[in-house]
Amino acid sequence: MPDAQQKFKKATSKLINNFDAVVIGAGFAGLFMLYKLRELGLIVRVFEAARELGGTWFWNRYPGARCDVESMEYSYQFSEELQQEWKWTERYASQPEILSYINYVADKFQLRQDIQFNTRVKMASFNEAINRWTIEMVDGQKVNAQFCIMATGCLSAPNLPKFKGLETFEGSLYHTGNWPAEKIDFSGKTIGIIGTGSSAVQSIPLIAQEAKHLFVFQRSPNYVVPARNKPIDPLIEQQIKADYVSFRERNNRKPAAVNIEYNDRSALDVTAEERQLEYEARWEQGGFNFLGAFNDLLINQAANETAAEFVRSKIRQVVQDPAVAEILSPHDVLGCKRLCLGTNYYETYNRPNVTLIDVSGSPIEEIIKNGLRVKGKEYPLDCLVLATGFDAMTGALLKIDIRGKNGTTLKQKWGAGPKSYLGIGINGFPNLFTITGPGSPSVLSNMLPSIEQHVNWIAECIEYMRKHDFISIEPTKEAEEAWVSHVNEVASQTLLTTCNSWYLGANIPGKPRVFMPYIGFPAYVDKCTEVVLNGYKGFVSN
Ligand code: NAP
User: Fold this and answer.
1) Does residue 502 have its Cβ closer than 6 Å to ligand 1?
2) Three-class DSSP category at 392
3) pLDDT tens digits along 261-304
4) What pLDDT is recorded for position 2?
5) Which atom of ligand 1 is least distant from the CA of 155?
6) Which of 60, 164, 219, 498 to mutate to test the pocket of ligand 1 (most atoms within 8 A of CB)?
7) Coil, strand, or helix at residue 520?
8) Apex CA 239: angle with CA 234 and CA 244, to 5°?
9) What are the tens digits of pLDDT across the range 246-262?
């Protein structure tokens, strides 16, 4: 063992609850990080607030919860044996099936024994004298580790808007991002749902089937394309499994690491008839393929408007009441907010037991003990469902009191928006890694390959440190500043900065407006590789 490592081991050997690495979160990211670090021979402990595995997929159990990336792609690729033996049943996996998969992976690789459940982390502080992190739990437990790895997820801190009177509501209150494990029976009840994002789009049709009446309170409409979920075609499964590695490699070179077929023509270079045919074909196919209909939908406003108008025409065709169809029709850039995939979403508004309430011009005034009031009118409700989304990307990180060098808190450092190098490392916070942190493709990519790429990168970095006898690593301020500018520059070349999306933090009052994810998975991976090939360029190691 090299000298510095030995001295470091000696200095820290008397610390109790001592680990090489602590991983916070036991979703897809935390689980694979544990697997990789164990492979390197590190002593690792994972802390998870929930009582079970799954992260996002543990908490989001609302009716209809299902992934919007196809199941053959939304899965780990690190083990050929695993990807061959696991059998998905549907084109898009449901939340229970994803949970079964995560549990299967944990059992197969015996990962559970290093995970401590029911443990919420309160604080993580860096001790410069010994180059270690102290991690403190809500229950007072404290542990030490050389590396602290945040696998806290991008969409895991629910957004609970401060509605006046919320605490006075006497009916049942639910948030889609923190849904109870037991089945909720909505039959015979009057339900209100606030929000019309992906979670609401999935749950509204199912709640409507059960409820006596469903009131949907919509602040902004979203574009919803059909998911066209169906059982997995055994032939397609067979073809993919015959050469899964090439399938993954091909997808990983696509802009979002998702198997979208991109047309190489502009929407404005074809005739109206050709455009219509292309949109129709993709509408029939279902899924995110719609976004690949033309190559300029997310960079040219006029091109985008042709796709937007196509979806609005579909809404008008499906929704019988023209006034309701108009309220459901978005007029912002299609794809600026995440495109929603739905099943019978617009059709649901033809049901006599569903009423759409437009709250765009006048916000919800107050939640009252038996319902809510908007525009002076009271809506009596038995249950209220908040489908109000998340404090995305930074929320879960900032919920933990993270303190780096000189006691600087991450909250202070990110006061004007998140700053990170590659979305992995933060200047002033040595040996702290963020998996799919702000500044990385994360939510604008297929999360599974993004997670695997980050975990592999972090594991390789730790291996490099050990090999070179380094005990700490952190990005330079200059590298971080340059990366944040680059992330913004890339985003500004697209239409994705033109609306009030959660990518910009615009859904949370007071949150700094900074475009958080990096657009373009392949370019990002190349950049990460280049950093490594250049001796971890932009990082300083000691
Ligand atoms: P979301 O997209 O942020 O939607 C939240 C909804 O709540 C929006 O309609 C928002 O309106 C509304 N809202 C928030 N505060 C409000 C207020 N004070 N008054 C009235 N309305 C309010 O959240 P989400 O639906 O949970 O989805 C978040 C992300 O999670 C998705 O974009 C997706 O990336 C992921 N997700 C994926 C899946 C899937 O894989 N299929 C499913 C669910 C979620 P405004 O638009 O006006 O802000």
Assistant:
1) yes
2) coil
3) 999 999 999 999 999 999 999 999 999 999 999 999 999 999 99
4) 57
5) 30
6) 219
7) coil
8) 120
9) 999 999 999 999 999 99
